[in-house]
Amino acid sequence: MKPKKEITIYDIAQHLSLSSATVSRALQDHPAINKNTRKKIQTAARELGYRQNTFASNLRKQKTNTIGVMVHELNSNFITSVLAGIEKVSTEAGYDLIIAHSSESAEKEAANALNLFHKRVDGLIASLSFGTKDLSHFDPYEEKNIPVIFFDRVEENSENTKVIIDNYKCGYQATRHLIEQGCKRIVLVTASLKRNVYAQRHKGYADALYDNNIPYEKERVLIKDLSEQCGVEAALQILKMKPLPDGVFITNDFSAAVCMRTLREHGIKVPEDIAIVGFNNDAISKLVEPQLTTIDYPGTDMGEIAARNLISHLQGHSNLKHTNTIVVRSDLIIRQSSQRTRK
């Protein structure tokens, strides 16, 4: 079936025996056009199936009112909440979003960056993949003065604006809490230490052990992908450790919930035998039994802050070059999975 011809302002003008200039102004709700004439033109536009070509209009203005968003995954409660925050602020400001994800591939991330660049996004909000080693694929943005804000997973030594939490403090707090519950053999389950978020949480873990005269043992640091399978694998490795660990800090709530379930299936009591702390404060942390102690990582706030700063820059109200790092609040939420009697 042959597609119908796209309706233009000239078609509407001919249909109503008006000038195209009058139609154009009426569709933009220009006060110079009589109210009744505006209503008649807008009604005819709807009936004829007219679609405004905002893309062409924006290109003439050298802007697209579009923001690119690059994430490392989509099947994450944290990322979903960040996107919700970005969408809330961008919609209120009249910006559209184009979302791309790298599936933890540096190559796909680079391809996405180039694709969004060619789609002429006005600005970019990005979180880096596990495999990203440098930021050279963002150079075209800098050359064209297109602002880029990184969030969560960032390159700490770059001069770009970054929106993060204090991952070191969170790692330290979670580990210290387990120590305060009487734990001395604490396992850390985390992801690639090449990424800032996991490297800083690991450093906080190590320093908390050191400050409490507990030896750091690399055998108790499990580097995983923080997937569902990771939770099972981590539990099975923990069960083989001699002596058995008495505390586990897992830097992802879903993996922590799966690990806890697997440990309990093998007769381990939580928190009596092993106390567990997760990370993110995902919904699952309150649905599992016992409820999971976790770090509250406010993804919606992070998304809103990133979008608000980017749009403020785009609208000329602020300059991102004067803003390097924005630290979002984060808190330890203590629940039953870690509260135990001292031994």
Polypeptide structure, described:
The termini are far apart. It is elongated, with a radius of gyration of 26 Å. The chain folds into 3 domains: 9-52, 434 Repressor (Amino-terminal Domain); 64-163 and 299-327, Response regulator (Rossmann fold), CATH 3.40.50.2300; 167-297, 3-Layer(aba) Sandwich (Rossmann fold). It has 13 helices and 12 strands. The model has no long low-confidence stretch (mean pLDDT 90). The protein is α/β, with parallel strands linked by helices. The strands form 3 sheets. It has a 6-stranded parallel beta sheet, with helices on both faces. The chain has a 4-stranded parallel beta sheet with strand order 7-6-8-9. A two-stranded antiparallel ribbon has the order 10-12.
CATH architecture of the largest domain: 3-Layer(aba) Sandwich
Count of helices? 13
Strand order of the largest sheet: 2-1-3-4-5-11
Low-confidence stretches: none
- Beta fraction of the residues? 5-15%
Shape: elongated
Helical coverage, percent range: 40-55%
Which homologous superfamily in CATH is the superfamily of the largest domain?
Answer: Response regulator
Q: The CATH topology of the largest domain, please?
A: Rossmann fold
Q: Could you say how many structural domains there are in total?
A: 3
State the assembly state of the protein chains: single chain
Distance between the termini: 77 Å
- The count of β-strands is 12
Radius of gyration: 26 Å
